[in-house]
Amino acid sequence: MVTLAYPSRDKPNVYRPVGHCIYCGGNGDIGGLSREHIIPLALGGGLILPKSSCATCSAITGRVESVCLNNHLGPYRKFAGYRSNRRGKAGRNRHKSILRDGKILLTVDPSPAHLRLPEFYEPDILLSSKLRPMPLLIKRHEILLESRRSFRTASEEMVYIEQQPYDLLIFARMLAKIGHSFVCGEIGEENFDSLLEPLILGFDTTFVGSVIGQSMYLPNATTLKSGRHAIGVHFLPPGFEPSTIWVVARIRLFAAQTCLVYSVVVGKFTPTRDFLNWRGLSTLGSTGLELFQRRFGISPDPPPT
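RESULT FIELD:
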């Protein structure tokens, strides 16, 4: 089962205000509570969770996103014209020339159009049913769109300018932040026991490979022409403990360019009766909803007497 969101900057989807920090549980006494852009604003934004992040946690998640958006994804963001803030767009590529004796020696494009994403293995917790120390296991880097920085000098020699190294842990922490905040907005914190706060805030990252990985399944959605992102909620039993149901966020960044889908195991499913009001269940129909209730042991509120 999945609910999907293809956010648009023009028509943002605003969830119900939380009223406390979804990362540390604080009430925002110092600095107040700010809204959380589930998909980073510099990647298009569009999903907003009001009053959900304290100033301290917002600074931490902001630094994580800054590394990913400026270093890892910066060249493609500029090429695609993603906005860097509410008032402007990321600049298009601009060529610079290196001169010697009045002659062009080298023409450099500071922001070549490449989109480079890491490909992981499946989260370990879905196979072992245990949260345990596990490094992030990478298969390879998938270069989905590339205009490599290779240029000819005046002497016809090829010059290659290498790409910046990829910080996989920072990228995984950004995925964890997206998945956690999205599930909080979609089904509510009361319906799952979260696993990800220590990873998102950087307090404990030893279990990152247990909860972050790749999925073999695409979200059930149609890719928008704008190339924005797809994100959905799934409920999955692990391989060896079918009584436990994990809440998994499936994230497909740059959906028009890639089939890579990241799985973020957000926490253990602990539904309350209010969960039956979740709008994502409306696609199941009455028969599907009854089957879902029996599967997870949820009983609707009794009718008033």
